[in-house]
What we know:
Strand order of the largest sheet: 29-30-32-31-33-34-35-36
Distance between the termini: 43 Å
Number of strands: 36
Oligomer: single chain
Structural class: alpha+beta
Shape: globular
Strand content: 25-35%
Amino acid sequence: xxxxxxxxxxxxxxxLDAAIEEEYASQSKLLxxxxxxxxxxxxxxFKSDDxxxxxxxxSISQPNLLANKRRKSILSTHISKESSKLFxxxxxxxxxxxxxxxxxxxxxxxxxxxxxxxxGSVYTDGWFEGVxxxxxxxxxxxxxxxxxxxKPTFNDHGYKKGGSTDKDCCSWKGQGDWxxxxxxxxxxKRQPALFVINLNSGEVRAVKGIKKSLSIGQxxxxxxxxxxxxxLVFVGWSSETRKLGIKYCYNRPCGxxxxxxxxxxxxxNELELKDSSTxxxxxxxxxxxxxxxxxxxFSPDGKFLVFLSARSSVDSGAHSATDSLHRIDWxxxxxxxxxxxxxxxxxxxMCAEDGCFPGLYCSGFLSNPWLSDGCTMIISSFWRSSQxxxxxxxxxxxxxxxSPSDSSFSWNxxxxxxxxxxxxxxxxxxxxxxxxxxVVEKATKSAAWSWLDVSSxxxxxxxKVRSLLSSLQFSIMKIPVKDVSGSLTEGAxxxxxxxxxxxxxxxSDDCDPLIVFLHGGPHTVSLSNFSKSLAxxxxxxxxxLIVNYRxxxxxxxxxxxSLPGKIGHQDxxxxxxxxxxxxxKGLASPLKITVLGGSHxxxxxxxxxxxxxxxxxxxxxxxxxxxxxxxxxxxxxxxxCYVEACGSSGKNIFTEAPxxxxxxxxxxxxxxxxxxxxxxPTIFLLGAQDLRVPVSNGLQYARALREKxxxxxxIMFPDDVHSIExxxxxxxxxxxxxxxFSKYCK
Length: 746
């Protein structure tokens, strides 16, 4: 047969038919419009040259899908009615030097290149990360990877004595001893160490005297002392044996330490000091009596040191829990530091009355969080299902909610402009808006704040996205706990919450299909802020039920600690209770329910499709924990399996070699124990580099479902870790979730 005139054969992507391909094209176009909305990562305030107003400078990031990177840029805007400098770090992607830049308000002032022989990449991870200027802005202390250790060299004669620093085509470097790292997202990262650069000479020195077993982070300069030396305060995490995963895990013991800063030549000459390279440099442990201390901040007058503590997390073993805030009165006499009293500013809140402060849940401080009185900090904290802005008087302990108490939006402080606040506010159906906060009634005990909109092009979105979002509404629902027993604490008996997103113009009596979204952790929280991914899903015709089951952050310590030992039961029942709540209110159809979760949210999702196999028409999981008996031997946080399966006693039971009875317990608590009942078509999105819930967990479960004839789709992202957040991977992930749900419930 002559087919020379036949048209070209259209190649379909694997697994797609024409209808599904059309759905891909339609949804991907919409998802791109949501993806293009930028994020604000950081903000700074500069005084205008005329001294009248202020310029806000925002660090903006936006996914670049083609390059598979985040495009970063700086945008400035006039805000209203202190001059500072920026320290810009450009880490190398290979063995090139690190590149430092010092910027003033309008120009580059200095730049330095630091070779790999001095240190590796600077830590910019938001946890070990620490950059601090001294008082006269001549020195910067920072945290970077220690230099690469020497490795054995081999050539065609065998081992080469003395090694080699030169690149030699006739030899190669061996691997040397393997060193533990801090797990998820830190694979291949060397030990964080402390360095100081002199901005006049460009000389970099390592800080001496710190034990190798301490990983360093969050450095700040201490106020001047009575001696000749300057001192640095830093956070130290001890790791005598194994380093357990630290990302998202605040249960790793840590403390505050002080160490002498290195002297530079001019200083040494003035003081007529001899070479002190062999001198024993003392390191002071400032917080010996508390199991967790981090995020150190000195008051503007240097009279006290404030820090955050996750001791409730460390002491219970839960990976995250309710924070506490503490103060140390700072002495200029270094001999008094180790005996200084630790004062509780905000204790751990066990159970709050309705509408009252539920406890401190703070992920970070501003570089300068202080108002002009020198004792009031402005911080962001979770308050049930929202994020709010608080003022905290660290002398009296008074805590005030200063973002609007009648707002269900989430608020996050970006920077301070004197006694005014630059913040961002958003909701599940409202793109972020920059806000400017001013005190309007200073004389009253509880000062009232006024919040003004700041005109800014940062969060521009397309007319289509704006129109779709305007057709949506959200509310935060209180869900009563079912079957309250006498064994429950008061906090665990109180209602939990769910965020419900729906259309604001119901066209018929039929309900839109429902997506139940479940956060991971389990001790994290889904906030009432804007999420591009969830806004995309709700804009394609779904209602969202975003459940903050008991065990979530933001609801007090008793509610949080009610979950360890009961995973797979209490959290599952809370999700089912929330679903029944919206069905009973006529907001959801029991015939069109899907479920989506990642990590522990994936654990819950796979539990739900096994425990109630007829309830969900489709499911989607991202790096799910499906089999704790398998996970405990492969994860970077095996202690998590013990604590969540056994309760707080699991912290002391934990061993690297679990006995058979514990493996049996882990299996019984896992979704895989209910696998035989599963019918729900399920899509798996897996990161091949995940160290938290290694890919074997999701693959084992997916393969077992296929074996029993359940429809399964697996997408593997070869270069992604637990969060699957590389731009292309995040895009493809949520596009496939949208198409998968559309296939089964529309």
